Amino acid sequence: MGARRVVVVGAGVSGLAAAHCIARDGVELPGGVEVLVLERAAEVGGKARTLHDGGFRIETGPTSFLDNSEVFRRLVDSAGLTSTQITADPAAKRRYVVQGGRPREVPAHPMKLATSGLLGPLGVLRVAAEPLIRRGDPAVDESVWDFARRRLGAQAADRLIAPMVLGVHAGDAKRLSLRSAFPRLAALEAEHGSLIRGAIARRRSGAGGGPTGPSGAVSSFRDGLGALPAALADTPGVTVRCGASVEQLARGEAGWGVRVAGDPEPIPADAVVLACDAAPMGALLRHVDPAASDALAGLYTPPVSVVALGFRQEDCAAMPVGFGALVPRGQDLRLLGTLWDSQIFRGRSPDGAVLVRALYGGAVDPDAAGLDDQALLRLARDELRVVAGLEAPPVHVRIVRWPQAIPQYEIGHQRRVDAVLAACRRNPGLLVAGNALHGVAFGSAAEAGVRAAGGALSYLRGGE
Fold first, then answer.
1. Each residue's pLDDT tens digit, 72-126
2. 208 pLDDT exceeds 70?
3. Which residues pair with 325 in a beta bridge?
4. CA proximity to 376, closest of 305, 315, 297, 430
5. Residue 199 — pLDDT band, cuts 50, 70, 90?
6. Phi, psi (rounded to 5 degrees) for 49
7. Distance CA 29, CA 2 (A)
8. How far is 210 from 195, CA to CA, in rounded Å?
């Protein structure tokens, strides 16, 4: 029996994690396995790329990952990057939310909310009453904002939870599904009847973490997050073909056929892993499984633009110390949030310089992401004066645009997930990865790739 072939569509961290694990663990198959990764862009990494630009290390998308997953740790170790993993500076534990025109630190303990200035007296009292609130109906697919208003009050929902949603999903808390976007919050209420009681129980058990998820060290790699997809792409047995736009996917009696634009014939494959964005994934499934294609067509993925600015260190004296600041709506700012990269991880900027990123667009203000470079730069400079005290002109500018950035897990998202997974069951040898279904974080996407690899290998073994 000759080597089996698996084609992976998409060379983001998820697709490359799938390719790496298939090639690594597929050597036991009779004849072995060859893995071909097709990527329409000119380089690997998807949105998780690290630009080395003028002495700055600029993340084009996600900033970090939480080192709390054994699956992810094993992947990093297998890629040979364990020794290069770094943790965030202790100062990065300080997080801010803009309220009343200035950044206010989010207290580490909820009892300090009363003096933070983030909530008024009634808002603080309402949060304190959270343990008295009855559980919600588990059959209701509740929005994140409705859940927060019910449990914590409208003020906390607007000023604390909605900006958190902006920071993770660049999304609208009133439209995102709690159980799909923040399953840990839903689980805390289901298990403990209260977020506060749940958080206390987690601390007592040693699990740690906050209400939105488990604990873990904020981490990256010395050369940035882009180091992981780059290392995975170098796996023996994996061939990566960039600039390859997949036009069609077809299934026949002999297996799968993957047609690439400009190729004379489809590429034959025993199994296919779709690890691309939701829109191209849906288009490829149009003739394979129309129901799954229709489900993915409804997944809103708004644009986000990243404005990376380098400043002289002496011009940053008024800048707060911490991870960054999120901006609730209603603050007369279009900024979603700002990340103070030089204060999160050392080595992100040259000596004597500071790197800051400002994020625009998302589900709440997609038009902001479409402003031209000059308008976007002016807006970022004006708003960073307010949020971070940065008055001086930047010494370095880099703007990165993502027309389709982060998928929005809106109300009813689970039906979309069910439709796509049903398509995989109806079409043996079809696997899905990426961040369209089960989690938008860097680590979650990588784990989705690992799971897809397991499914592909299981299918290949069954066909021996």
1. 999 999 999 999 999 999 999 999 999 988 999 998 777 678 788 899 999 999 9
2. no
3. 96, 338
4. 305
5. confident
6. -115, 155
7. 10
8. 9
Q: What is the model's pTM?
A: 0.93
Span between the terminal Cα atoms of the chain, in Å: 9
Please answer whether residues 231 and 240 qualify as being in contact, where contact means their C-beta atoms are separated by less than 8 angstroms: no
Q: Which residues have CB under 8 Å from 197's CB, separation 6+?
A: 131
> Are the beta carbons of 334 and 383 closer than 8 angstroms?
yes
Handedness of CA 388, 365, 402, 146 (dihedral sign): positive
CA 276 to chain centre: 14
Distance CA 163, CA 326 (A): 6
- Contact predicate 433/448, CB 8 Å: yes
